[in-house]
Every structure is written in structure tokens, then in C-alpha cells.
Design brief:
- It is found in: Cytoplasm.
- The protein is an alpha/beta fold and 236 residues long.
- It has one domain: Carbamate kinase (3-Layer(aba) Sandwich).
- Helices cover 37% and strands 18% of the residues.
- It has a nine-stranded mixed sheet, sandwiched between helices.
- Helix 1 links the parallel strand 1 and strand 2.
- Helix 1 crosses helix 3 and helix 5 packs parallel to helix 7.
- The two termini are 25 Å apart.
- 46% of the residues are buried.
- Bound molecules: adenosine-5'-triphosphate and the ligand O=c1ccn([C@@H]2O[C@H](COP(=O)(O)O)[C@@H](O)[C@H]2O)c(=O)[nH]1.
Amino acid sequence: MAKYKRVLLKLSGESLMGEKQYGIDEKRLSEYAEQIKEIHNLGVEIGIVIGGGNIFRGLSGAQKGFDRVKGDQMGMLATVINSLALSSALGSVGVKSRVLTAVRMEPIGEFYTKWKAIEALENGEIAIFSAGTGNPFFTTDTGSSLRGIEIEADVMLKGTRVDGIYTADPEKDPTATKFATITYDEVYNKGLKVMDLTATAMCKENNLPIIVFDMDTVGNLKKVINGEPIGTLVHN
Ligand SMILES: Nc1ncnc2c1ncn2[C@@H]1O[C@H](COP(=O)(O)OP(=O)(O)OP(=O)(O)O)[C@@H](O)[C@H]1O
Ligand SMILES: O=c1ccn([C@@H]2O[C@H](COP(=O)(O)O)[C@@H](O)[C@H]2O)c(=O)[nH]1
């Protein structure tokens, strides 16, 4: 039986590239859809936020001379593209989803309200929250904590390409060691950069636990939902 009734799943835009250098890898996308279907079949209510790093990030744009606010808006639109792709992939495996957008852009998606999100979840649909918070200078990690808190999720699952939180970035430091559990304060005090500090602070203040795990290994999402101790649990 599933350990969690309602979850907020954060998917990395960058992971969606798979082996590619840019954009969406169809194989990775369909693996994600299959994994999500598996936990949906267990009766778990699922809200999803997907990043945009496979397409555009405002901060990188600003370093190349783009206006930061316009760059962030481009980044938010990138998350809408990924959300539509995920919704389409879920449809292909027979799972209904609703794309909700933080900025108005009907008919591409419905303008987000908490109540539409809850209605979708209670109807057994997956709610995909796109365009982040709708504001520049934020990230989809913060968008995830915000939506996770709003929908009263039991946990925020940060599915990424590393298998947890380490003493240093494991992609850069091969001697880094993994935490099984860690407090929000330790993440802050040790300056660990697995997700942005605004997101971590919001989860801490609102008591929303976070599990960071490797979403790119098929089967891991179900393990996390069943309470298997893979990844790193962040708590108060
Ligand atoms: N201490 C740490 N422990 C684990 N990962 C870390 C740490 N410090 C930095 N990282 C990095 O954090 C990244 C988190 O990956 P993720 O793809 O989720 O980032 P993201 O910026 O949210 O992606 P996107 O914007 O594309 O959604 C990993 O690439 C990992 O290398
Ligand atoms: O609330 C938000 C969320 C995101 N952005 C912009 O989108 C890109 C992509 O999001 P990632 O979290 O980096 O995947 C981000 O770099 C920002 O430019 C935003 O402005 N506001």
C-alpha cells in the first residue's frame, strides 16, 4: 500500500533531455509517464511541476545578454512546453491530466487556482502545474514547494538525476557522501545546492517533507511511494 495519499512530484527539465543536448527525449518522457501511471494506479493523488532547464533558463540567458525578466518569462514558457509534452505522454498511456498555468494562456492550459487543482486530483486526474510561480526571479523548485503547500501534499518528491543529497555536488566531487536524512537547517547551514533556498525555506516553514531521489532509474518512483528508503529525506 502507498505510504502517501497526495504528492507533489517535481521533475527536472534537464533530465528530460535524456542523452540529447537540448529539448525532449521521447524515451525519457515515456519512461516518466509509465512510472507516474504506476503510482496513479495505486490511488495516489499526484500534482506535478516540471522544470525548463532542457530549453531555457533566465539566469543563463541574462549571462548572454538577455533582459533577465524576459529571460525568466521565456523559462516559464519552457516549463509550459514540457508540461504539455508530459500531459500528452500521460494521455498516450491512458492517464488523464490537466495542465494548469500560473499565467493566463487559455486554451493552452487553464489558469491555476487551488480549487481547480483539488478538483482535478479528487477526480483522479493528474494536475500539472506549469509556468512556475508566474513571477520572474523564482525557479520551479520554489513553484513546487508553493503548489505542494497549497494542495496540502503529504510530501514533495524531487525526482532528479542524482540519487539524493550529498555533502557536495556528486557530479563534481566524487568523494561526496550521501545523506539518508537531513534537516532543512543542515541543508542551509552546509550550503548544499541541490535545490534553491527559497524552496527549502518554504517547505521548512510549512512542514512539507522533501524526498530527493533518482527519477531516471525506472521503478524508483514506486519505491519512494511505497516508503522504501532510497534517496534523501529532508525534514524539520
Ligand atoms: N549537495 C548536492 N547534493 C546533490 N546534488 C547536488 C548537490 N549540489 C548540487 N547538486 C546538483 O543539483 C542538481 C539537481 O538537479 P536538477 O536537474 O533537479 O536541477 P534543476 O536545476 O532543478 O533542474 P531543472 O531546472 O532542469 O528542472 C544535480 O544536477 C546535482 O548535480
Ligand atoms: O516561478 C518561476 C519558475 C521558473 N522561472 C524561469 O523558468 C526557468 C526554468 O525553470 P527551472 O526551475 O530553472 O527549471 C528558470 O530558470 C527561470 O528563468 C521563473 O522565472 N519563475
